[in-house]
Write the structure tokens for this entry.
Amino acid sequence: MKLFLAPMDAITHQAFRNLVGRFGGCDEYFNEMINASSLLAGGAWEKFYLLEGPEPEKLVWQMTDKNGEKMAQAASLLAERSGIGIDLNMGCSAPQIAKTGAGIAWMLKPIEETQAMVRAVKSALENGAKDGRSAKRLSVKLRLGDEKYTEEKLHSFCAMLIEEGVQMITLHARTQKQKHSRHSDWQAVERLALRFPQIPVILNGDVKDRDSYELAKKAAPHAQGIMIATAAAQKPWIFREIVGSSPTMTGGASPTMTFDAEELALRFIDDVERFQPQEFWKTRLQRFFAFYCLNFSFGHYFQTSMINAKDNDDARKKVHEYFEKCPNDRIIQLKF
């Protein structure tokens, strides 16, 4: 079963993908969401959203916008770049996104409008295929729908997507307003996969370790992949942890792996400086350390300290201080 790094705002940029890559990576990396209008405007920051490392051939460009024409134009640009393809964000339920007509709003608009947008993006990808190359893959990440969701409506919507050329669907099986306190409906993923066996259906939500990975596979055996979001932000090594436990793993892999958690944190700060504009440094560090610090004995104290760091040098100082006080937290050992 394939493993996917979920697109996460202010997290799945190249500095973070590099961390995941240090542990062997995953099958596909979804970048943080690109706004089509901003990309077309050619703003000073857009080049940082277009960085392709550490494995360009495994990268998926996720994008959204309220305007379908601009999404198609942006798709034409992205079709010229490396990577597997483009993913349309139809699942983001953050009010600041949905209220603009982007994200999950595409599931709630008149079906003809969404259909026209998907058709235009698909056409842009096909037109971008040159020199005998196949067109980039078109995929969609979505939720169940709004609070009036029915499975019939969801399946009808997905049938339209497939008819218009969508080649993979990732389902985060919660409604628009359901929070993470409610478990993702893995059975809904299984029913979607059974309904549409002609394309890969990917499960997203509540996979946070090896045990939950195995449970998700049992709940949705016809899903062809599992996408991991915040658990990867907390543990960039989670894909290695899962693959390392797989009975199909070959090559005589070691049953354990150790690494230095302090060095990993400092490497991330260095890479944020290399691969993000200075204006983004603070928010990128805050977003990552809000999750990463929870691995440790005094995680909430460490988290608060890092979120309140004045700048990158102060963040480095606080990392050193934490592991000086808690040296037993420094070395992490994974057992497979």
User: Anything to note?
Assistant: The chain has 16 helices and eleven strands. The longest helix spans residues 111-127. Confidence is low (pLDDT under 50) at residues 247-252.
